[in-house]
TrEMBL record:
It is a single-pass membrane protein. InterPro entries: NADH_Ub_cplx-1_asu_su-1. The lineage of its organism: Eukaryota, Fungi, Fungi incertae sedis, Zoopagomycota, Kickxellomycotina. GO terms for cellular component: mitochondrial inner membrane. This is NADH dehydrogenase [ubiquinone] 1 alpha subcomplex subunit 1. It comes from the Eukaryota. Keywords: Electron transport, Membrane, Mitochondrion, Mitochondrion inner membrane, Respiratory chain, Transmembrane, Transmembrane helix, Transport. The keyword Hydrolase does not apply. It comes from Dimargaris verticillata.
Length: 68
């Protein structure tokens, strides 16, 4: 049982960049996670650089859906 629990914890942390899993993620948190993903390439990555990289101007979070 302990090995299985440890394996689940390792799998969850691998998906979160080595950090503990987030609980109670609100819409604001999701938007910040998308922004961090666009800036750094990691969902939980953060940057202290005040100037965004040039590719940040062209990538977008707008979702495009096809009409039926």
């Amino acid at each position: 049982m302990a090995v299985t629990g440890w394996g689940v914890m390792v799998a969850q942390r691998a998906g979160e960049g080595g950090l503990p899993r987030r609980y109670d993620v609100r819409p604001w948190d999701k938007k910040m996670m998308e922004r961090d993903l666009r800036l750094t390439g990691l969902k939980r990555g953060q940057s202290d650089n005040p100037i965004a990289p040039p590719e940040f101007a062209t990538n977008s979070i707008w979702r495009v859906y096809k009409k039926f």
